[in-house]
User: Fold this.
Amino acid sequence: MQDEEMRAGRPLFEWPLIFIATLSLMACRSTRPLQPPLSPAVFTPDGLGLVFSAAHDEKCFLFRAEISTGVAHRFTGSASSCEFDPAFSADGKWLAFMRAPEDGLHAALIIADSDGRNERVLVPDDQDNLRPVFLPDSSQILFLRSAAFEHHSSLVDNNRHKFDLFAVDRTSGQVSALTHKKFYDVNKVSISKNSEEILLSVTTYPEGYHFLVAPTKNPATFTDSIQPTVPDSPSPPICSDATWLPGDGRILFMAASLQPGRSDFDYNIYRLMIGTNSIQRLTQLAGVVDGFSVSADGTRAVSCRRKHRERMP
Assistant:
């Protein structure tokens, strides 16, 4: 038996070791999704501040930081909850965000004035709702809903899966499903400035990471699939956070690149012209970037960069 295994090119103790490692991962697998210590920020309507979520223990609250000074203060008045995914309306009048009783539990979609006051629950926390985005010149707010927190491999942790896009009317609170795709993952939802197109950053099988374009009047019908490849991209490419810019046919996105002599990735922000498929790299960052957002006029972006490099699978 030993001679057969050696001839097959396998070390004698490969399978027992792999089995032990798999059991160890199963023992510590997450039971619910948790917020990172610091979440990607969004620009305030006046362009002078950033609003973001900061987590500690089982609480996470929204803060506003002044760009000129870096001074931050609480943006909402909740005493015990977990708030995340802030989004402002295009006209600067409204704020939407998610609030759960504690980190990892299902969250309600909250709407408030743009200064965080006069809040009310728009969508209850009976399901896993997240990432609201306002539809410009409309009373509709789009948001994602995950139908599963699970894993599809014994070597990975549990994560949100089976995503679909929903809409809620700001006035009536009526909720409607816009897609029925059960996407493996949806990283971001972006609306074009003319409100005519939706851009979804998705992960599907066998395509992998790519961006889907759909008309806002019929979000279930996708008119284009975009999978940009940047220099030194892994195969298949890793891309996310696609965001419409003001004007026609330009998007910003984040992508991973391999570096010589290293086993991990660098993440940077790129600009894509959809008509010509030309790609321009805009940042020169090293390590992992956990998302970004763009100012209303499209001239500035803010990203959330991890302080320590981590190995990626």
In short: The radius of gyration is 21 Å. Residues 1-30 form one domain.
